[in-house]
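Ops channel
N.P.: pipeline sanity check, posting one input/output pair.
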């Protein structure tokens, strides 16, 4: 939407360059157009952006309405002079227009290797030839520097663990005046290769360069490699076969830390973000509505027939916690049999305010390693509907079975599902890695599935809710409260959506499991953590509404006042976060009325945060002088 700005008023709008020619050429080469995952990265961050055609950088009037521009990273074949027709934003008119736009205050971010003619604009020179990479292959490692943009991002739990890159890399040498935000090392993390992320100040603006393909690395970590080989040798195709991080520390959220780097670069201007958690709807005061972290609770019933599901639900309800139970059917070569959960107990569980969904069983009655079929998905979804009278929303596959890449997600969506919770936190062995916190797929945040190049890399309206905190805090005979504390501390420090995965059988029958949950509640209360708790279905409802919400038409007035328009699709409202640098907020008004707000440090940045209710709202932020 076009905006007419008064003199001195600065836009706060982000644009993404959409290189359609590159997408078409990638499909012709039978390759994924990895840059499309830029949109998923921005969705995870809660940042609204607009698409620009590849010729736009040559036209100053097309750049002027934007405060930040993201350029796609290029595959190795597109970095050659013969591919210049696919990258018109690197020709001389575009170079001049981009440099002028940056000098006037724009933030230019290259999300991967850029054509050589743009090297001077970013203030770098190649350190050598591009390093190509096969899909899903570790290319290099990365260590963040102590530069202010990134100094507070890396994991305090494993500070010596480098981050991981799964993309082509064109390491660069910074020229005078260009700072290094991250250095690339070889796959061992020992031998430096060159600068991996750089920053150049140019006039009033900044030019940042990722020397590796950031969207490709994020996509590779989030979705892993296709489960077409039994990589771990356990005899099954499972999501653990898809994990790419190898022997590296599982408690580091590799993708999220890179995402926070991108967020920090965009935060050089006060761009508004939608927080990954909604306000607390049952808080005792307005201040307590300003959530610190989100925890979502669920587990699988393993087709138990002894009523333990209802007992587990009663335990969680007595503690005021939500809970999501995945009910599994018996499966034989003859077909889908009955569920272990009775209709009567299912109704009692719902009366507790808890959720029932489907625990897909692709383990029994088949020969392994088993390739999931759309017919098997449909048959089990139909059995669930017949038994419980509703569609499953967020499902889990028994023993986290999976096959292929995105295909099961497509079939589950066609069967009425909306989300999955099978992407496990750690590789196998062990086959059931209990009492562990892990980010096997690099992220704590939900993320949508995307098809491969054969279907144009289009998005599937089906969400992955990754497993992270799996049966944490206990074993059969002992408790591990230190791990419970670490889960809470990381969730609050980074502002995460943390999956709390507990099987009903252990909640119902193991005292140590209940003690671990009680310690979670005691510790969050003692720390004063303002937590939102949900089941998996509720998390999908929140994330789906968040994806349909928007903060737009944001501008910064000459005195620093911010004005923005907000649309919130979630009934309980949402939280808006604005990077504040060193400024202190004076007044925040929503629809002209003062709004409760606060400042906080989270995921390496200092934020102003406030709540808006559902619907369309106008916001004005004034800073102290």
């Amino acid at each position: 939407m076009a905006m007419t700005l008064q003199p001195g008023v600065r836009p706060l709008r982000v644009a993404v360059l959409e290189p359609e020619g590159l997408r078409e050429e990638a499909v012709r080469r039978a390759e994924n157009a990895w840059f499309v995952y830029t949109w998923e990265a921005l969705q995870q961050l809660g940042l609204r952006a607009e698409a620009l055609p590849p010729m736009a950088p040559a036209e100053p009037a097309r750049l002027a309405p934007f405060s930040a521009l993201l350029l796609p990273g290029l595959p190795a074949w597109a970095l050659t002079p013969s591919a210049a027709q696919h990258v018109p934003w690197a020709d001389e008119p575009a170079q001049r227009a981009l440099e002028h736009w940056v000098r006037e205050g724009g933030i230019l971010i290259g999300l991967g290797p850029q054509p050589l003619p743009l090297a001077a604009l970013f203030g770098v020179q190649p350190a050598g030839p591009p390093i190509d990479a096969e899909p899903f292959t570790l290319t290099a490692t990365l260590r963040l520097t102590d530069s202010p943009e990134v100094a507070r991002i890396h994991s305090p739990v494993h500070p010596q663990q480098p981050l991981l890159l799964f993309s082509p890399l064109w390491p660069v040498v910074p020229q005078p005046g260009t700072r290094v935000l991250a250095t690339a090392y070889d796959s061992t993390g020992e031998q430096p290769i060159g600068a991996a992320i750089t920053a150049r100040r140019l006039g009033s603006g900044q030019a940042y360069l990722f020397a590796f393909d950031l969207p490709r690395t994020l996509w590779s970590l989030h979705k892993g490699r296709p489960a077409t080989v039994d990589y771990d040798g356990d005899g099954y195709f499972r999501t653990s076969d898809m994990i790419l991080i190898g022997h590296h520390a599982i408690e580091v959220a590799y993708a999220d830390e890179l995402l926070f780097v991108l967020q920090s670069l965009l935060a050089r201007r006060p761009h508004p973000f939608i927080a990954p958690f909604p306000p607390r709807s049952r808080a005792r005061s307005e201040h307590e509505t300003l959530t610190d972290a989100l925890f979502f609770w669920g587990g699988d019933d393993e087709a138990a027939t002894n009523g333990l599901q209802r007992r587990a639900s009663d335990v969680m309800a007595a503690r005021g916690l939500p809970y999501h139970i995945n009910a599994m059917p018996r499966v034989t070569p003859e077909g889908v049999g009955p569920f272990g959960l009775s209709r009567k107990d299912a109704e009692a569980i719902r009366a507790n305010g808890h959720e029932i969904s489907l625990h897909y069983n692709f383990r029994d009655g088949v020969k392994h390693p088993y390739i999931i079929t759309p017919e098997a998905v449909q048959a089990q979804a139909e059995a669930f509907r017949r038994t419980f009278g509703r569609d499953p929303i967020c499902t889990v596959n028994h023993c986290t079975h999976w096959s292929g890449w995105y295909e099961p997600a497509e079939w589950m969506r066609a069967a009425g599902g909306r989300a999955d919770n099978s992407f496990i936190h750690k590789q196998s062995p062990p086959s059931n890695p209990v009492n562990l916190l892990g980010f096997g797929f690099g992220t704590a945040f939900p993320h949508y599935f995307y098809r491969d190049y054969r279907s144009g890399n289009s998005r599937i309206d089906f969400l992955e809710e990754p497993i992270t905190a799996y049966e944490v805090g206990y074993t059969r005979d002992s408790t591990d409260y230190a791990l419970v504390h670490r889960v809470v501390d990381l969730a609050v420090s980074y502002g995460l959506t943390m999956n709390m995965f507990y099987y009903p059988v252990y909640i119902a029958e193991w005292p140590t499991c209940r003690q671990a949950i009680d310690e979670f509640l005691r510790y969050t209360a003692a720390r004063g953590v303002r937590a939102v708790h949900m089941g998996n279905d509720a998390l999908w409802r929140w994330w789906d509404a968040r994806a349909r919400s928007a903060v737009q038409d944001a501008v910064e007035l000459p005195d620093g006042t911010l004005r923005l328009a907000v649309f919130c699709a979630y009934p309980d409202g949402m939280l808006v976060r604005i990077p504040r640098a060193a400024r202190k907020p004076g007044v925040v008004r929503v629809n002209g009325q003062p709004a409760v707000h606060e400042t906080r440090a989270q995921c390496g940045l200092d934020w102003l945060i406030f709540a808006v209710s559902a619907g369309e709202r106008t916001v004005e932020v004034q800073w102290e002088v």
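N.P.: looks fine end to end. Residues 261 and 540 are 26 Å apart (CA to CA).
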